[in-house]
Design goal:
It is built from eleven helices and 18 strands. The protein is an alpha+beta fold. The protein folds into two domains: 108 residues, 3-layer Sandwich (Rieske Iron-sulfur Protein); 283 residues, no CATH class. Strands 11, 12, 13, 14, 15, 16, 17 and 18 form an eight-stranded antiparallel beta sheet that branches. The chain has a four-stranded antiparallel beta sheet with strand order 5-6-7-8, with no helix packed on it. The protein has a three-stranded antiparallel beta sheet with strand order 1-10-9, with no helix packed on it. Helix 1 crosses helix 9. The longest helix has 18 residues. The two termini are 43 Å apart.
C-alpha cells in the first residue's frame, strides 16, 4: 500500500496535487540571492512546485516574486523591464511593485481606476542564508523557520544549488539515508575528511549496518543511526529532517556544518540547495575554493548553469580504473555520486519494485509522515510543523558516545545549546 501511495500522493506536486499543496504551506528556497544580485537587474525565471514564476530585485533592493503571467494579457513578465521601483510589462507598459500593486498603467486613460484594482500575483519572500525563500500557499504565511543560517554573517555561509533530473523524494531520501555513506562514498584513502566527520570516519567504514532510532518531532523527525565504535563507545550520526524538504547533515564538532534542501521544480526535477556554514568563524579561503571549484565533496558546474559538469549525459564522468583503485564508485565527488545514483532510479522511481530493509527505517517513516500530512491537509488540517518556527533551530552531529548513552541522549545533541556544550565538554555527562 505504501508503494502505491509513493507512486501517487507522495511524488506528485503538479496541478494541485496533494503533496504540492502540502509543501506550499511551508517556506522553501526559490532561488539564490546571487541570481538577482543587483537592484534593477534582469528578471529571472523561477520554476517552483509546478508553477512558472519570475523574480526580480527592485531599485531599492527589495525582491519580488510573481506569477510569470501579466494580469493584463498573460504575457510572460520575464521579458519585463525592471526599472524605477517596479517590473514593467513590455506589452502595454503596465508596471507592478514587489507587492504586486499596479503603480503605472500608461495604456489606460488617466481617469481610469483600473490601476487601483489590478494586481500581479505576488508571493511573500524572505531573504536569508544566501537564498530567496518563498511561501506559495494560501492566506498569510507561517512564521519563517528559525534556521541557524539566518542569524549568521554572510561571511559564515556559502550556499549553492544543483539541478537534479529526478523527483524530489529520491533526493530527499538519499540525504536521510545514513547507511549509504559506508558504501557509495567510500574512498581507499583515509587521509581526506570528505564528510567533515573527523576521526570518526573510520567507524562508518568499519560498520556498514547501522541501527536506526527515529523519533517524530515538532519540526519533522530526528534520525539517530548507531554504529560500533571503540570497545566502550558507539558512533552516532544524528540527522534532523526538517519537514518537508530540509535535512541537516551530521558533522563532527568543530567542523563546517551542512544542510540540504530539495525543492521540487516539477514532478521529474528538483533543485538541490547545498548550504555550508561555520557559526563561530568566517569560512576560510581554502574552504570557499573547495566549494566553488568542485573539488572533494562538491560537484563542478557547467558555467552559466546550475547543472554539474558530470551528469547523466556523460555517465557522471565515471572512471572505471579509479573505481578499482581509488573509490567505490569511480565518480569524482560525493555530491556527484549522490546525484548519479538518485537520478539513476528514474525520473520518478517505481517504489513497487523495492525491497526495504532495517536500514530504510527513516525512509519509511518519512514517507508515511508526509503522506499522512498531505491527507490531513485535504481534510482541512494545516500542518502544525509549518507553525513551529523555533523548533527548526537544530544541528546535526557525528560523534562517539559511551555505550551507556541512549538514542534519546544522542538525539538531544541536535539542540544547538547541547551541541555547543559537547564541543567544549566531550563527555556526555558534562552536557
Amino acid at each position: 500500500m505504501l508503494s502505491q501511495e509513493m507512486n501517487g500522493v507522495l511524488t506528485r506536486i503538479e496541478n494541485g496535487a496533494p503533496m504540492g499543496e502540502l509543501i506550499s504551506r511551508f517556506w522553501v528556497p526559490a532561488l539564490l540571492s546571487e541570481e538577482v544580485k543587483d537592484p534593477d537587474c534582469a528578471p529571472v525565471r523561477v520554476n517552483l512546485l509546478g508553477r512558472k514564476l519570475v523574480a526580480f530585485r527592485d531599485t531599492n533592493g527589495a525582491v519580488g516574486l510573481f506569477d510569470a503571467r501579466c494580469p493584463h494579457r498573460a504575457v510572460d513578465l520575464f521579458f519585463g523591464r525592471n526599472e524605477n521601483g517596479g517590473l514593467r510589462c513590455v506589452y502595454h507598459g503596465w508596471m507592478f511593485d514587489v507587492t504586486g500593486k499596479c503603480i503605472d498603467m500608461p495604456s489606460e486613460p488617466a481617469s481610469s481606476r483600473m490601476k487601483d484594482i489590478i494586481r500581479a500575483t505576488a508571493f511573500p519572500v524572505y531573504e536569508g542564508g544566501g537564498m530567496i525563500w518563498a511561501y506559495l500557499g494560501p492566506g498569510d504565511p507561517p512564521p519563517v523557520p528559525d534556521l541557524e543560517i539566518f542569524s549568521l554573517p554572510e561571511t559564515h555561509v556559502y550556499t549553492s544549488k544543483r539541478l537534479m533530473q529526478c523527483n524530489y523524494m529520491q533526493a530527499l531520501e538519499g540525504s536521510i539515508d545514513t547507511a549509504h555513506l559506508t558504501f557509495l562514498h567510500s574512498e581507499k584513502s583515509t587521509d581526506v575528511d570528505v564528510f567533515g566527520v573527523g576521526e570518526y570516519k573510520k567507524f562508518s567504514d568499519e560498520d556498514g549496518a547501522p541501527k536506526f532510532f527515529c523519533q517524530d518531532t515538532a519540526y519533522g523527525m530526528s534520525i539517530s543511526a548507531r554504529r560500533g565504535g571503540e570497545d566502550d563507545t558507539y558512533y552516532w550520526r544524528v540527522t534532523p529532517w526538517l519537514m518537508p524538504v530540509g535535512v541537516l547533515v551530521p558533522t563532527a564538532p568543530g567542523k563546517v556544518c551542512r544542510a540540504n534542501f530539495f525543492v521540487p521544480i516539477d514532478d521529474t526535477s528538483c533543485w538541490w540547495y547545498r548550504i555550508r556554514y561555520t557559526p563561530e568563524r568566517p569560512l576560510s579561503g581554502d574552504e570557499l575554493h573547495e566549494y566553488q571549484s568542485g573539488s572533494l565533496d562538491y560537484s563542478e558546474r557547467i558555467p552559466g548553469t546550475y547543472l554539474s559538469v558530470g551528469n547523466k549525459e556523460n555517465d557522471y564522468l565515471i572512471d572505471r580504473e579509479a573505481q578499482k583503485t581509488h573509490s567505490y564508485t569511480g565518480i569524482r565527488s560525493a555530491q556527484l555520486q549522490d546525484i548519479a545514483v538518485q537520478e539513476s532510479q528514474g525520473e520518478i522511481a517505481d517504489r513497487s519494485i523495492e525491497n526495504l530493509g532495517t536500514s530504510d527505517t527513516a525512509i519509511v517513516m518519512c514517507r508515511r509522515r508526509l503522506i499522512n500530512a498531505a491527507k490531513d491537509l485535504q481534510s482541512g488540517r494545516v500542518p502544525s510543523e509549518s507553525q513551529n518556527a523555533r523548533e527548526y533551530r537544530k544541528r546535526a552531529i557525528a560523534i562517539t558516545l559511551p555505550r551507556s548513552a541512549s538514542a534519546e541522549d544522542a538525539a538531544k545533541l541536535a539542540s544547538i545549546s547541547r551541541y555547543q556544550a559537547i564541543e567544549k565538554h566531550p563527555k556526555l555527562e558534562d552536557v
